[in-house]
Each structure stands twice: as C-alpha cells, then as structure tokens.
Amino acid sequence: MTTVPTARPRQRFPEIAAVSWEHPADRAALQALRAVPGFDDVVRKVIGFLGGERGIRLLFQGNAVRAGAAQFPKLWTLQAEVAGTFDWPRVPELYVSQTPVFNAGAYGVDDPFTVVHSAALEMLDDDELRVLLAHEMGHVVSGHALYRTIAEILLSIGLSALPILAGIALFPIRLAILEWARKSELSADRAGLLGSQDVVASQRLFMKMAGGTRGQINSGQLSVDAFMVQANEYLTNRDGFDAVYKILNTLALTHPMNTIRAAELQQWVSTGEYDRILRGEYIRRGQQEQQRPLVDDLSAAGSHYAAEAREFAGAVADAARRAAERAAEAFRSAQRR
Fold first, then answer.
1. Phi, psi at 74, each rounded to 5°
2. Beta-bridge partner residues of 96
3. Which residues, 6+ apart, have CB-to-CB distance to 13 below 8 Å?
4. Is the pTM of the predicted complex or chain greater than 0.90?
C-alpha cells in the first residue's frame, strides 16, 4: 500500500511573487541574456522547430511516466502540496524519466511542467523530494522554464558540431545562458527552502547531489554538519589563485558547485529574508510586483557582482604578493650561499 508523505504544518504564501526570493544576480543575468544580439531570434526559431509548447511536452509524454493518482501518487501528492504552498493556480504536470544521472527540471513555454529523473527517487527521502520539487516550482513561478528549455537545447549542441560562423555567433549566447543558468539555480534553491521550510533537508539535498546515497546518512557515513563546514571552507578559501581556478572550473557548468549552493542558501537565511517571508512580509503578485522599482534589482545585482569582483581581485593580489615574497626570500637565500 502506498502512503502519502507525513503532513506537518507549513506556512503558505498567498499570492507570493517570485521577486520576493529571487537572487538579484539571477534577474540581472536574465536581463543581460535578453540583451545579447540575436537571442530572441534564436529562442523563436528553436521553439518553432520543436513544435511549440505541445511539441516540447510530447517529448516527455512519449518516453516518461506521468505522475498522478495512479502513478507515483506519493510524488504527485508532494507536487500538489508544493504548488499550494506557493499559491500557484495550477499544479504543473510531473513526469518521471528513467535516467541514472541525478537531475530534475522545469520545461515548457506558457504551461510549464516538471521532470524528475528516476535516480532522484532512488536517492532522496520524502523531505528531500519536497525540497527538490519546490526548487523546480521556483523555476516555474519565476518564469525560468522557457529559458531553461532553450538552454538545455543550445547547450546540448556542441559548438564543434556547428559551422564555424554559427559556432562563433552562438558563443556569446552560450556564455550568457550559462551565467544566467547558474544564477537562476540560486533563486530556485531559495524557493526549495521556502516550499519545504526545512533547512536541514535542503542541506542534505546538496550533500547527496555532491556525492551521496539514501542509506549512507542513516549508516553514519555522511554528516550534514561536516558537509556545511566543507561548503563554507570552499566559499571562503582565498589561498593563492584559488579564486581564478574556481571561476575557470565553473564557466562551462549549468549549475553552481553544490558546496557553493549550500553556503549561499545558508547566507541567505542568515540575512533574515527567509524569516521575513515566513512572517508574511513579501511582495505579492500583480500590482505590488509591477511597482517594484527596477533600479532596486539592478542595484542589488551590482552589489553582488561588485563583491565577487573585489573577492577575485583581492585573491589575485594576495597570491601575487605571496609569490613575490617567496621569490624575494629565494633570492636572499641564494645570496647567503
């Protein structure tokens, strides 16, 4: 007999607007993406090639299992619960795809749907699945699904497989998509926490995506506390050219490193924004959302990128200083000989 997930009181957010939790760099990167010459033309052509909304949905309807009362009922119950938490007018369709690689996604144009890989069901418990589904719901509410659909298609096409001129034309679009995709994940991670209202489950999700399975936590092989120490070490480490290596390691990724995501979410909670939303202090959809000054978003995003730039410049300068000190010490040692 299939049972539904254990219910516990969770705060609902009537008419909550995505801007209430979105990372400012997500909104700035999306604006930059839309401003890339030729991007809108690429979007229209790709969607048209796939047959629009229906064509995209048929890709999964034909080769995945649609969740509902008769198939994956427990997962569907979680999906409906998460939609209710965000006061979303419709529960997005949910598909389970037989895929051994852990992932999930929100796709579509005007009527987005969610896809969860079977590997996620094997790895996660109910609380972690709730975080995952709330994360994808965050993408839906933020309107990310269209751009993530385009991103998945464009990024699956290797530039080397295209004519030289086409590859050159798509390269700036590819970089812009990747930058936005990484920032959009930080927004969706916040939605994952708001939908689950379980900080520890959110941290466990990041840990399992980094390298874990369902049973290793119960058997004492994994520790959330140790993982968060690791996450904060990675975020704050500025030794040598580590900042340079971090950027280079991330450029080709669609998602931030899982340790970065865990630490970023922890930092957001520490600002008090999460608690304020739980108290009902958030922006509502509609006129209140539209009246939010654009300059507020741009200013916040500018502060985020400025802080990243300062950290990068400081790390490089520190590495250069220490390299110079080592060179000077080596020169003095050679003179003493």
1. -65, -45
2. 65, 116
3. 20, 85, 86, 87, 194, 277, 280, 282
4. no
Q: What is the DSSP letter of 11?
A: -
The residue among 86, 173, 180, 97 whose CA lies nearest residue 136 is 86
How far is it, in rounded angstroms, from Cα 168 to Cα 70? 48
* Joined tokens for residue 331: 């020169």
How would you class 251 by CB atoms within 10 Å of its CB: exposed for 0-12, middle for 13-18, buried for 19 or more?
exposed
CA-based R_g, the chain, Å:
22
Query: Which of these, 42, 192, 43, lies nearest to 132 by C-alpha position?
Result: 192
- pLDDT, tens only, 239-283: 655 665 556 566 667 778 899 999 999 999 999 999 999 999 999
User: Residue 190: which of 265, 79, 88 has the closest Cα?
Assistant: 265
- For residue 26, CA distances in Å to 57, 177, 179 come to 26, 11, 9
* Among 197, 193, 246, 204, residue whose Cα is nearest residue 226: 204
How many C-beta atoms lie closer than 10 Å to residue 153's C-beta? 16
| Of 158, 185, 168, 153, nearest in space to 254 by CA | 185
- Rounded Cα distance, 261 and 23, in Å: 12
Residue 44: both structure tokens together: 């229209």
CA distances from residue 159 to 151, 162, 169, 239 in whole angstroms, order as listed:
14, 5, 10, 34
